[in-house]
Design a protein that fits this description.
35% helix, alpha/beta, four-stranded antiparallel sheet, single chain, Rossmann fold, six-stranded mixed sheet, 27% strand, 219 residues
Length: 219
């Protein structure tokens, strides 16, 4: 499903370049649940952003479902992202001027789904995540843990083929964290390919492969 060939990310500094990622070559098959681990500053989140097509300033070759991402313009990358990918951000990235229910509706609005059907899917998701009472609240009215739950719900509501998660349980208490990881495990068993970045050895046990990054290199 994913093929990376000699992916590099760098920025100029006096006298040369500073590299965030170096010569990343990696294949991830459809249906895998891969964990990316490594120390802070190793390039984990950067690699996830490149795979999620949120970062365009890199070199190398990247194929996603046989689509040559490295040759696509920004508009086509955005369309591919919307059709295939769900992303759980470490910093939530919720839209502050939209309610919880409206934030959840966004991924569905990119698809050819009738409004009534979208509303039903949002209602089911709110119930699934225990957030029915929060549906009309804005992100600023939620705790960090509640915002993280909304972020996870938004990422999975449209049943993406590829789920990318950057420290998905970092702001959740242990019981909520286990629930999210069990949900990821269930989605994976149903065919969703998952890549998670985490420092948690416990979260890593839910996946079937661990990739280690150190100083921008695959370790």
């Amino acid at each position: 499903m994913i093929s990376l060939r000699n992916i590099e990310k760098s920025f100029p500094i006096p006298g040369g370049r500073s590299y965030v990622l170096r010569r990343i070559t990696l294949d991830i098959a459809k249906g895998e649940f891969v964990t990316v681990m490594g120390p802070s500053g190793a390039g984990k989140s950067t690699m996830l952003s490149i795979i999620g097509m949120l970062d365009g300033g890199w070199t190398g070759e990247y194929f996603l479902n046989d689509n040559p991402v490295h040759t696509l313009d920004q508009k086509r990358r955005q369309a591919l992202h919307k059709s295939l990918i769900g992303f759980v951000f470490q910093q939530y990235h919720l839209l502050d001027d939209l309610t919880v229910a409206e934030n959840l509706d966004i991924p569905l609005s990119y698809r050819d789904i009738r409004k009534a059907d979208r509303q039903a899917i949002v209602a089911d998701t709110l119930d699934r995540f225990g957030m029915v009472a929060k549906k009309d609240l804005y992100p600023s009215q939620l705790s960090g843990g509640q915002q993280q739950l909304v972020g996870v719900a938004r990422a999975v509501i449209h049943q993406p083929k590829l789920l990318l998660a950057d420290e998905p349980t970092g702001n959740l208490h242990s019981a909520q964290g286990r629930e999210i990881m069990e949900l990821f495990s269930k989605l994976n068993s149903e065919g969703t390919t998952i890549i998670q970045v985490t420092h948690s050895e416990q979260n890593a046990t839910y996946g079937n492969r661990v990739i280690n990054l150190k100083d921008g290199w695959l370790d």
